[in-house]
Amino acid sequence: MGFLARLSRRRRLARAARAPFCACTIATRDYLAPALVLLADLARHHPAASRVLLYLPAPGELAAPEIDGVRVIAAEELVDAAALALLRRRFTPAEACFALKAPLLSRLLEEGCGRAVYLDGDILLAGPLAEALAELETANAVLTPHLDHAIPDDGRLPTEATVLRAGVYNMGFVALRDSPETRRLLGWWGARARRFGFVRPLLGYQGDQNWMSLAPTIFEGIAVLRHPGYNLGYWNAHGRPVAGDAAAPTVAGLPLRFAHLSGFDPARPEALSRYQDRVSLAAQPVLAAMLRDYAARVRGAAGSGMRWRALPAPPPPAPPRGPRTAGAVPLPPEARRAYLRVSPAPPALEPGEELAFTVQVENRSDAVWHSLDDERAAHGVWLSWHLLDHEGRPLEGEERRVPLPHDLAPGESVLVDVFLPAPPAFGRFVAQFDLVQEGVAWFGAGAFEEANVPVVVGASFPPGHVPFT
C-alpha cells in the first residue's frame, strides 16, 4: 500500500471513529461492574457516541442504576410484562440477556440511531472501533469470527469442536447500520433467540450466537471483519500474541481494539479464562499487564456507590379462583377419576426445545382434589407426564410436577400451562399426561387419547433416522 493510500485509509478510519453512533450493552446486577468499566472506556475512546445500558433486574428487584452520561433502560421498559415474564421463566439471566439483544438494537434503530454497536459487558475496550465503523459505510452489519488460526489438536481446551458448537461468529460484538435489510436481520435473529436462546452446546444451542453463522448467506450486506485486533478471546489468543505495551497494544502489527474476557475472574487476573487451559499469561506479558489493570478497575467499580431509580411495582398476580388447601389423607381409587385434554404440539421441533402445552384438567370424581401437600405427608394432587418413545416405552428422566392452581371440586375443570423440553434426540415420541397424588398413586388419566400428544423431533423423519446435510 502506497503512502497516499495509507494516508487516505487513516483519514477514513479517523472520520469513522469520530462520527456519532449508539453503543449499547446489557447487564444484570451481578455483571454491572464490568459493564461500568466498558461504558467508561466507550466515553474515552468514542466521546461522541451515545451510550446505552439495558439493565435486567432480578425478579422482584424494583430499581435500575443511574449513570452519568448513560441512558439506562430497564428490561421492563423495553418489552412488555408478559414477554419479560416468559423470558425469565424459560431462561437463565444470561440467556434472557441474549434474547433481549435484538430487541434493544431494534429499539435504537427505530429511535433514529443510524448506526448501533453492541458489546458484551465483559469486553476490555483498548481503542476506537474505527475499522468496524468504517465498514458500516457500505455494510448493513459487521461480524467478527471466533477464529483466524487453526487450533492445535493437542488435548487442550478450547478445541475447534468447541468453536463449531458455539458458532462461527462471536456475538459479544456486532455493528449495524439502519436499513430495511438490517431490520429484517434483527427480526429473524430475535425470533430465533426467543425460541432457541438456551445455552446447551451439545444440542447446538449457544444463546443467540450460533444462529448468526447463517446470516451472511441469508441477508445482504454482512461484512466479516478479520482484523486481528477485534474480539481477542480465549478461543483465539493462541494465534494472536499481544505486543507493544499496555498503553498501545498491538496484534500482528495492528492495534488491539478490544479483548473479550469471557470466563475472566477479576479476583484471579493471572488466568485468561476459566474455560481454557491453552494460553498462559506468563507468555503474554502485555496482555497480562492489561488484565491486571482491568481487574483492578472492575473491583473498584464493584465497590463504588451507585445511584438507583425506582421502577414501578408490577401489578399483583390474580388471586386463585378458589382456595388452596392441603390434602391430609390418600385419595381412594374412586376419587382418582379424571379427564385430561392437551393442546397439540408444534409440527416441527428441535432436540431439547422447550414445549408449551395447555392442559384441561377435569375432576370426574365425587371428592375434592387438594392442591397443596400437608406438612406430614405429600398428599397434594399434581399434574405430571411421562415421555414415551415410538414403541411406548418411558424415557428415563425427571418426572416434573405442576401444581393445580387451586383445589378442584367435583365436576370442576381448570386449564394448566405446562412447559417441558423435547427429547434430546431425533424421532417420534409421545408426551403422556396424568395426575398424581404425591406419595400415593398415579390417577391413570393417561389412558385417555386426549391426554397423549405426539411429539415429532426432527420434522417427519422416521424413527432412528438422523438428518444431516
Walkthrough of the structure:
By secondary structure, the chain is of the alpha+beta class. The protein has helices at 3-18, 32-45, 81-90, 93-110, 130-135, 160-166, 180-196, 215-218, 285-303, and strands at residues 22-27, 50-55, 63-66, 70-74, 115-119, 123-125, 141-143, 173-177, 199-200, 205-206, 222-224, 242-245, 248-251, 254-255, 258-260, 307-310, 326-327, 338-342, 354-363, 372-373, 381-388, 402-403, 413-421, 427-437, 441-442, 452-457. The chain folds into two domains: 3-310, Spore Coat Polysaccharide Biosynthesis Protein SpsA, Chain A; 326-457, Immunoglobulin-like (Sandwich), CATH 2.60.40.10. The strands form eight sheets. It has a seven-stranded mixed sheet, with helices on both faces. Helix 2 crosses helix 9. The chain is elongated, with a radius of gyration of 26 Å.
Q: Find the CATH superfamily of the largest domain.
A: Spore Coat Polysaccharide Biosynthesis Protein SpsA, Chain A
Shape: elongated
| Major sheet attributes | 7 strands, mixed
Q: Determine the CATH topology of the largest domain.
A: Spore Coat Polysaccharide Biosynthesis Protein SpsA, Chain A
Approximately how much beta-strand content do the residues carry?
25-35%
Helicity range of the residues?
10-25%
End-to-end CA span: 42 Å
**Overall CATH architecture of the largest domain:** Alpha-Beta Complex
Q: Enumerate how many helices there are, as a single number.
A: 9
How many domain modules?
Answer: 2
Briefly note the structural class of the backbone: alpha+beta
CATH class of the largest domain: Alpha Beta
Strand order of the largest sheet: 4-2-1-5-8-7-11
Look at the structure and give the mean pLDDT: 91
Radius of gyration: 26 Å
Which residues form runs of ≥5 with pLDDT under 50?
none
Report the strand count. Answer: 26
